[in-house]
Amino acid sequence: MIRINLLPVRAAQKKEKLRSQISIFILCMILVCIACGSLYVQKILAINTIKDEIASIDQKNKDLSKKIGQVRDFEKKQADLEKKLVILQKLKNGKSGPVHLLDELSAALPDKLWLTKFSEKGGKINLTGVADNENTVAVFMRNLDASPYYQNIELAVTEQTKAGERKMQKFTLNCSVEAPPSE
């Protein structure tokens, strides 16, 4: 009987199977590496896109912060300007007050009455003067009472004095100042 040795063929087939399995394994590894590499590149591109968006938003935030700062400065300057305008209006209104006050005083003075002292402090006025009689002082007080600027007129002191040969009435009046409402 003839003997055939099949062992080397099997060994060769085993080697061939092993080679094909190794080549399939290597091919699978290469495909997995390519797939992982493409996913990695895709994620890196997405990350770069998001980083660019974040940088753009940060730049917009910086620009808006500058504009907000400018708006706040403008609002502060506007508030300061409004305060100054209010002060200027008060000064403007107060500027004409003393003029009207003295004009009303001048209009209220009757003949034969002379003022010797006029002092104003904190809205309170002290008037000292000389008149020929008590009636003249009373007329002066009525005239002041009719004025919208003079309020609460009170006769503090009245006494008789001599000016040369004539007898005169020395008086002191106290009153308060109140500006009438603006027209």
Walk me through what this model shows:
This protein is an alpha+beta fold and 183 residues long. It has two domains: 13-103; 109-177, General secretion pathway protein M, EpsM (Gyrase A, domain 2), CATH 3.30.1360.100. The protein has helices at residues 7-108, 134-146; strands at 113-121, 124-131, 150-163, 166-177. The protein has a four-stranded antiparallel sheet, with helices on one face. Helix 1 runs antiparallel to helix 2 (134-146).
List keywords for this structure.
183 residues; alpha+beta; Gyrase A, domain 2; 2 domains; four-stranded antiparallel beta sheet; 4 strands; 63% helix; rod-shaped
Q: What number of domains?
A: 2
Residue stretches low in confidence (pLDDT < 50, at least 5 long) are none
Helix tally equals 2
Shape: rod-shaped
Question: Portion of residues in helices?
Answer: 55-70%
Radius of gyration: 54 Å
What is the ordering of alpha helices and beta strands? HEEHEE
Structural class: alpha+beta
N→C terminal distance:
145 Å
The number of E-state strands comes to 4
Q: What about the largest sheet?
A: 4 strands, antiparallel
Widest sheet, order of strands: 1-2-4-3
Give the averaged pLDDT, no decimals: 88
Strand content: 15-25%
